[in-house]
Structures are given as structure tokens and as C-alpha cells.
Amino acid sequence: MIVIAQGDRIRHFSIRPWVAALCGAAVFAGLAGYLIATGYLIMRDDLINAAVMRQARVQHAYEDRIAALRAQVDRITSHRLLDQQFMESKIAELATRQSALAARAGTLEPLLERARDKGLSGQVAPVDELPIPALRPGADQASLDPVPGVTAIADNPLFRGANAISLGAHAFAAPARPAGTTTVAAHGKTDRLAPAADPLAALDTVTSTLERVELEQLEQIDVLTRAAYLRRNALIEAAKASGLPVRSEPVPLEAVGGPFVPLDEAAIDEGFEAGLAELSEALDALEQTRGEVTAFPIAHPVPGRQITSGFGKRRDPILGRSAFHAGIDFRAPTGTTIRAPAAGKVVKAGRSGGYGIMVEIDHGNGLTTRFAHMSRLAVKAGQTVEPGQKIGASGNTGRSTGPHLHYEVRAGGKAVNPMRYLKAGTRIGNHL
């Protein structure tokens, strides 16, 4: 109850509890609202400033991220362009080396032909087994997305020949993204790229193959050169052991040495040219020695035929008295082919007394051969013959008791034993 006294007048009011509680609540709510409003007005500027600063930090971080991403994109693009330029230069280098190898093979071909003619093809792989790469640069370059590389560096077998090694059809494509770089995915997350397939490894394979081919060419030249000298030395030694007066001397091959110097392109080019010159010199020397040796009558005039009468003293088959046999006789039925034992020039071809139909060949160096009792001729006087060339057929003409070949070798006009040269031919034959 509330009592109000004013002079003689007294008033009293009765307030119910719920009314008092309601009024108290209203007063408290008003007071709280006032305090909150006052606090908000006081702190509003601080809140606004904090929100602005937070927004600025987010914006700055985003802009920094964008700048970093742009720099990374530029760096990746630069790397891709550098990779593309490197691959293009690598392909151009491979094409140049391939052209050089093809040119070297063309230069080497005649010498290999000569080596085969000399019986040296068995020493190394013949020319049709020499690996010659067939590369071509890639197709025209296009846009940078994805970064273009080489669409095809080789579309045919790299080697040819029975023992060739083929790389097949390699298709090389430049990587769309360099391996090991990073890229940003959605929501600003950074992921490491998986390593991409590197075409440089394939290019390195082709490069190493070309280097191996270059070395094989040099080794082939070296092996052929050594084989030619070895063949020549063996031929000279066999000829001298057989008593043939050859003038050539063997070439020593065992003494080698020098400092180790790694090969480079210039060294390979110089080595190839020097090797070609040395191989040509070795083949020339072998050819000269072979010509010198084959000038002696060392080949068999009737291969496989049995000797029926030797050189020297014997009983004359017609008179029955002791006589000198100036040659050797071979059992040869009429018509058996007679071949020249060495190169030379026919000086006689026709009938000659007791020789019957006879051929005489001058081989130079004072050596001549005679073939008697022939049934027919295949050459004529003044004609040049080669070793093994047919000069006629055996028979029974002249002073003869039956079909056979009378074969003589004369040195300075004097008859010498043909067996000396036939045995030399047997010994030397493996080296010819």
C-alpha cells in the first residue's frame, strides 16, 4: 500500500504484487535498453573499423593469391615454351646427325664393296646391315594449349638389315604441364601435379642410338682396316714361307696407345675421315700385295686332277730311255677345261712341235707357263687373261701317249718345278 499525506488530506493506494512486478520489469527493460543503446553507440565505430579491416585483409590475401597464381602461370608457360624450343632444337640436331650418318654411309659404301671383293665381308657386318637412322622432325607446331611438342619424330624403322635394331614408330608429345610444378585447384587449394611422361627420355634414347651408330661406323672402319692389314700380312708371310720372291713387307699392328680423349662430334668427324683414308690405304695395299702374289702361277690349271708324271728325271714314255721332264703331267680326259694359273698375256696359242696344240702365257717377272697336248684353244696370242680364266681343253695332240695335260713353269726361260708354285697356291689360297 502507498500512503500520500498532503496537509490534512491523506490518500492511500493499494498496489497489487503483480502490478508491482510488471512495473519493475518495465523499468528494468527500459534501463537495459538504454544501456545497450548507449554501449552500441559507443562501440559502433570500433565494430565497423574491425569489420572493415577484416574485409581488407581478406581482399589483400585474395589479391596476393591472384598475383601469385598469375606469376606461376607465367612461369609454367615460360617453362613450356623453353621445353618446346629445347625439343625443337634437339630434333633439328637429331635430323642433322641423321643426315651426317646417311652421308657417311654413302661414303663408306664403296669401301665396303671393295672390302667384300677382297673377301673381308665376313669380318664385320656388311653394308646392308649398317644401321642408318631415318628420322624426321615433328609436324608443324600449333597452339600452346596444350603445349605442342613433336607429334612424330620417327614413323619408320630406325635400322635396316638382318641384324638391325628397330625403335618402331615413336610418337613423342610434349607434356601439357611440366612435371614437378604446382597448380591451384578450386577454393584456392594447392595440389602437386603428378609427374608427366617426359618425351626427353625418348629423345635421349634416339640420341644414344645415333651415337652408337656413329661409333659402330668408326668401329666398322677400324675392324675392316685391321682385317685388311692382317690379311695382307698373312698373305705376305705365306708367300715368303712358300719361297715366292714377294717384295712387300708386313705392317706391324700390335703397338698401339695414347691418352684417353672423350669423343665429340668434331672428333667423330675427323676420326671418320681419317678412318676412311686409312681403310682405303689398307685396301690399296692389300690389292697391291694380292696382285703381286697372284702374278705367280700358283693356281691349279686342272683342279682335282691326279699327277701322272712329275718334274725332272724320268723314263721317256715313247723311247724308253732316261730323259728330263720339263713339267708335270695331269690325268685329264679329252675336253677337260684348262684354266690360267695367274694373270698374264698369251704369247703363243697354236701347234708347236711335240707340244701339239700349246698355249704359252707370260706372267711377268720372267715367269711363263706352257700347256701342251690340248685338244682346242679358248684364247689367242696377244690376249690378256685373268687367274682362273679358261684357256682351252685337254687332249692328246703332239708327242703324247694319251689324253693328259703337260704343264710347265719357266723362270727366265729355264724350266722349274711347277709343284713349288702349286704348293704355294695351296698354302696361300686361304688368304686370297
TrEMBL record:
It holds the Pfam family Peptidase_M23. One of its GO terms (biological process) is proteolysis. Residues 324-418 form the M23ase beta-sheet core domain. InterPro entries: Cell_wall_metabolism_enzyme, Dup_hybrid_motif, M23ase_b-sheet_dom. Its cofactor is Zn(2+). Keywords: Hydrolase, Membrane, Metal-binding, Metalloprotease, Protease, Transmembrane, Transmembrane helix, Zinc. It comes from the Bacteria. GO terms for molecular function: metal ion binding; metalloendopeptidase activity. The chain crosses the membrane at residues 18-43. The keyword Oxidoreductase does not apply. This is M23 family peptidase. It comes from Roseitalea porphyridii.
